[in-house]
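Lab meeting minutes (informal)
Scribe: AK
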Amino acid sequence: MSLDPAVYGDLLVSLLPELVLTGWALVLLLFVAWRHRTARDLRIAGWLTLVALLSTAIAVWWLWWNRAALQGPGTVAMIALDDFRWVADWVFLGAAALTVLISFAYLEREQLLIPEYYVLLIFATLGMMVMAAGADLIVIFLGLELMSVAVYVLAGLDRRRARSAEAALKYFLLGAFASGFLLYGIALAYGATGTTNLGLIGGQLSIMGKPSVMLLAGLALLIVGFAFKIAAVPFHMWAPDVYEGAPTPITAFLSVGSTAASFAMLIRIFLEGLPAMSADWRLLFEVLSIVTMTVGNFAAVTQTNVKRMLAYSSIAHAGYVLMGIVAGTPRGITATLVYVMVYAFMQLGAFAVIVMLRRRDVVGDELKDFSGLHFRNPFAAFAMLIFMLSLGGIPPTAGFMGKFWLFGAAIDAHYYGLALIGVLNSAVSLYYYVRIVVFMYVKNETIGSTPTTSPTLAVVLGLAVAATLVLGMYPQLLFQVADASARTLGAAGVTAALR
């Protein structure tokens, strides 16, 4: 079957950001094949990566303002053209750009002269963008696998450390197992509805009325696969070991980019394709949300390794974000997007401080390594203070506004118990966030040489602190963008879910 040339052209233009990033990935591959021996080559590869991400962001912006001309029959079937996709793309590209800036100092300090690092980072970002753009289960799964394979390699990039190899192996084995669940769930959904297109699945369900046993089984398998990708309890076992063992910039990218992409995929499938089954999946997600935030917070209390602490913290935050999915309303989707965006700044900023603490004589990821940081590097200590307060949901930070909106969405949807449990868990989380602050500002003993901030790390810390404070005090623009995005995402599907 041949496509009409006009339809084929629209299809290519609808994938313009992904095509631009793919082109840059090929250019970067040629560069690292030519020059890959010195630290200068590595820096050039990093700057090329930043140019690639910036040009892709420009392509996203252009397509956002010109999408009205592309609403043709060729683009509706498999590729989404909505504000949700553009906002998600900017989150992925922004997270990748900040990760690159964090990586400059880290890779040179660790003597990891591996320019392929940046190529893999681009491919992981490309996979995330495909996941957010997919309006078909097959497209979404292809994006997921592209992202996953790249991240598996990045997690084990430091072959000199046993922990890095262990992290990559655990992530690969458990990730492949979860992908099997996800793919089998997609197969059962196709068998029950006769299509993998999300819009057509929603139409089939509205005609079918009561879902079949096959579709319910497929739904259960899909939820298992998604629960692994977002590190929801009890499918979170991989997260602490992978976060601790992977190179710190990759841990930061994984905790923000991979989680955001998984939630974008989850929103697409359940709120756009399966809203008619909301009575079946909302209860499961409510239980997952409660268990995930509770286990994550209480496990983090006992940690002394800050990377493991932030791993359990990210598990707890996945539980918070699930509250927006459970609400299933436009405000719930808005709250989810807002929280993912503000979480990116505070989480990446926290990991940037850990990268800064890594010196020749100090690993930098233990609580004791933060001792006396205020007396040695006041700016880094202040930045970490802001990030910890924001993660704990203390005003006037962006984290407070994100949690306020999430809890408000749950209350609006009459999930009062879920909102109360979320508030109580936020109170518990303050204990381990404040522990870091106590080590920085109260303890006087210092370990190792004085930590210094490189120019690129200073840029990341400055941007993250500014965004965390400004978005906490003036969040209107952020809410407007997220709300517009939520209302363009499967509006008919969300309306059907509310009936």
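Next up, CB showed the second protein from the same session:
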Amino acid sequence: MMALGSAGAATDTAEWTAEQCMAYAVAHNHSVQTARLRLDNNEAAHLSAIGSFLPYVGASSGVQYNFGRAIDPETNTYTNVSTFYNYYSLSASIPVFDGLARVHQLKAARADLLAGKSSLQSQKDQTALATFQEYINVIYYQGTVKMAEEQLHESNLLLKQTQVMEEVGRKSAADVAQMEAQQAEADYELTRQQNMLASAWLALKQQMNLPESYELRIKNYELRVTNEEMEDANHGQDDTAAFATDEPLTSSLLETLYHQKQSALHSLRQTKAALWPTISLGAGVSTSYYKTLHTQAATSFAQQLQNNRGEYVAASISFPIFNRLQTITSIRRAKNNYLIAVEEYEAKQAELQKLVVEAANDVRGYRKATLQCQKKVEADSIAYTLTRRQWSEGLSSAIDLKTASATLLKSRASLLQNRLTTVLKRLYLRYYRGESLLMRSEE
């Protein structure tokens, strides 16, 4: 797959494949960029949780001017002179035991990080699927426009033929009027399909975040893939049965909810840690400088720093006794959040199991429908050829010819739609089963 990094790089591609469109959309989609930023926040929270195991080290310094009555630090007596006081301190502390709160905080942060990665991949998958849907729509309307052009060309030929046959007396003016109406209807249908194609192009460009003025051209994905699909179906091969199994699902949607459930569990345990006592150790060193203003007699700055220096070590333990029910209510909320996460995970798991079975059934159903439409197109084509020959010989009316033509056009459109839908449903089936989509290699 070609990695596309900017709008300028897109101009280097003459024709876009489905993989290139999906990759470009993933790289430039706003929702994907938002998911990346959320993942970066999760990484920062994880780093912060790791840092909570490190000791806290702080330094401070201050300057103080005393005016009026104060205590002389040299004599420890009251004085009324103005003084200058400058102090420095360096301290360190580390919690030794906190009820494993930091451990569960780290585990919750790691679960959030994994959930963020799964959420980012899920957003990429959904963006790629939406892009592929728009890509398929463009191909479909390209096909219907081509069919409408052929229909208009055929109507023009029939109109000319009818006009010539009227001149020789084989057709009436009413036949010519009916052919003119049929030609006008074909012209209108072509215009309608062209408008639908223009809307499909616009939707695809918006999904890819391309400017409307960019001239996008795509390759015909349908002819390359669906012929292989039809060959498998003709030989009775059905690989969708392998998807509808009882094996555990690994969809990015499910992974996100699983990690969110784990995060809620560790958050609950972290909240319960507030019921345990906290033990911490600390150490520090401090010194100061003192000078009485308006006098020259003072011990030197370096000597005072040495003489006034003091060190300390400390150990503390705190017991939670009563904090106005804050811990109890926090535990209650955390427990409810965990149970909510469990329910959401189990609900999504059941939903994905259902989606896998439905998608597998859809693939099989659309394959069979495609085979039936293919046979119908062949039959309708023969019927239209015979009706046109009969019309030329005066054995059928213009209405019969119009009906046969419309039936053939509808059959061809249905065949194209079923082929493309088969491809789309199979891609959704892969997504629901957690298989790697094309853009997973982009990260």
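CB comment: The first strand starts at residue 56 and ends at 66.
No objections, moving on.
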